[in-house]
C-alpha cells in the first residue's frame, strides 16, 4: 500500500460513513500523521507544474481535508496560551539544519507545511497546512500563507502580505507564487492566481482571477495569472457601468497593469540580499 492508496481508502471509508472523528482508530490517525510528515518533508505537494501549467493534486488535497474530518478538536499549548484545534503546530527542529530562521513571538507553522532551506520567517507570520515555502524565501512580518499555497524559491513576500488558501473544490489549483517573485507590502493573492517567475509586484496590489491583467508587453488582457518577468501595479480603468445618479464623472474598476521588468526595479527588490547571507 502506498500513502496515496491509504488516503484514498480513508476517503472511501469516510464517504461511506464507516468512520468519522469519533470512531477513527489508531490506524487512521497513523495514516494521517504519515501524510502530514510527508508534506513537511516536501515528498508530496498539493499542486504540481505540468506542461507549463499548475494543476492540483486531488488526493493530496483530500488528505488535507481528512485531517479536519477525522480528528477531534483538542486543547493544545502554544507558549503560555492554551488553544483548541484539530491540528498541532509543526516541529521546527529541522529548520536549524536547513539554515532557516524563524523568529519568536508569533511565527506559527501549522502541521503539514513545508519550509525549505535558507528561508526566513519573521514574526508574526502564519503558514497553514499544505503550504510549500521554497528555499531562500523571505516571509516578512504579518504575512499569511494559506492552505496548500505554493511559494517558490527566492521569493520575497513583503510585510502584511496575504496568500490565500484553496482547499475546495479539490480539483482547483491553489495560489502559486513562482520562483524569484517580489511581492510588495500589503499585496494579496487569492483564488488560485499564479504569479509568474521573477516578477515584481507593487505594494497593496490585489491579484485575483476576477481582476484583469493588462499586459503591455504582449498587448493583451489576461485573467488568473501574471506572466513571468513583469512589473505589476494597480490602476483603475473605466467601468461599463458608466455614469450613475449616485456619482459624477463615470465609474471605474480596479485593474493591474504589467510592464517590462526594469533592471533598476529588480535591483531594488533584491536589496535584502544581505539578510540571506
Explain what this protein looks like in three dimensions.
With 277 residues, the chain is α/β, with parallel strands linked by helices. The chain folds into two domains: 70 residues, Orthogonal Bundle (Tetrahydrodipicolinate-N-succinyltransferase, Chain A, domain 1), CATH 1.10.166; 180 residues, Hexapeptide repeat proteins (UDP N-Acetylglucosamine Acyltransferase, domain 1), CATH 2.160.10.10. Strands 5-8-11-14-17-20-25-26-22-23 form a ten-stranded mixed β-sheet, with helices on one face. It has a six-stranded parallel β-sheet with strand order 6-9-12-15-18-21, with no helix packed on it. Strand 22 and strand 23 form a beta hairpin. The chain starts with a helix and ends with a helix.
Condensed summary:
The chain is 21% helix and 29% strand. The protein is α/β, with parallel strands linked by helices. It has two domains: 3-72, Tetrahydrodipicolinate-N-succinyltransferase, Chain A, domain 1; 97-276, UDP N-Acetylglucosamine Acyltransferase, domain 1 (3 Solenoid), CATH 2.160.10.10.
Secondary structure elements and pairings:
Blueprint: H1 3-15, H2 26-41, E1 47-50, E2 53-56, H3 58-69, E3 74-78, E4 81-85, H4 93-98, E5 101-102, E6 107-109, E7 114-115, E8 120-121, E9 125-127, E10 132-133, E11 138-139, E12 143-145, E13 150-151, E14 156-157, E15 162-163, E16 176-177, E17 182-183, E18 188-189, E19 194-195, E20 200-201, E21 206-207, E22 213-215, E23 220-222, E24 225-226, E25 230-238, E26 252-260, H5 263-269, H6 273-276
Helix pairs in contact: 1-2, 1-3
Amino acid at each position: 500500500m502506498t500513502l496515496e492508496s491509504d488516503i484514498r481508502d480513508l476517503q472511501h471509508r469516510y464517504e461511506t460513513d464507516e468512520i468519522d472523528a469519533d470512531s477513527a482508530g489508531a490506524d487512521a490517525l497513523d495514516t494521517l500523521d504519515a501524510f502530514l510528515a510527508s508534506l513537511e518533508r516536501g515528498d508530496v505537494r498539493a499542486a504540481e507544474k505540468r506542461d507549463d501549467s499548475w494543476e492540483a493534486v486531488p488526493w493530496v488535497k483530500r488528505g488535507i481535508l481528512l485531517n479536519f474530518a477525522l480528528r477531534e478538536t483538542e486543547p493544545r499549548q502554544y507558549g503560555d496560551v492554551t488553544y483548541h484545534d484539530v491540528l498541532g503546530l509543526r516541529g521546527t527542529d529541522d529548520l536549524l539544519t536547513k539554515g532557516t530562521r524563524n523568529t519568536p513571538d508569533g511565527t506559527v507553522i501549522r502541521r503539514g507545511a513545508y519550509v525549505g532551506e535558507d528561508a526566513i520567517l519573521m514574526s508574526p507570520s502564519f503558514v497553514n497546512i499544505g503550504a510549500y515555502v521554497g528555499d531562500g524565501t523571505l516571509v516578512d512580518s504579518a504575512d499569511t500563507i494559506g492552505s496548500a499555497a505554493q511559494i517558490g524559491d527566492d521569493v520575497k513576500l513583503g510585510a502584511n502580505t496575504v496568500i490565500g488558501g484553496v482547499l475546495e473544490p479539490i480539483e482547483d489549483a491553489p495560489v502559486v507564487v513562482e520562483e524569484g517573485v517580489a511581492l510588495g507590502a500589503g499585496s494579496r493573492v487569492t483564488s488560485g492566481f499564479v504569479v509568474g517567475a521573477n516578477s515584481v509586484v507593487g505594494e497593496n496590489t490585489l491579484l485575483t482571477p476576477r481582476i484583469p491583467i493588462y499586459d503591455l508587453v504582449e498587448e493583451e488582457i489576461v485573467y488568473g495569472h501574471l506572466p513571468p518577468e513583469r512589473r505589476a501595479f494597480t490602476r483603475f480603468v473605466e467601468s461599463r457601468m458608466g455614469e450613475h445618479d449616485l456619482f459624477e464623472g463615470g465609474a471605474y474598476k480596479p485593474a493591474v497593469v504589467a510592464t517590462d521588468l526594469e533592471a533598476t526595479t529588480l535591483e531594488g527588490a533584491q536589496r535584502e540580499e544581505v539578510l540571506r547571507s
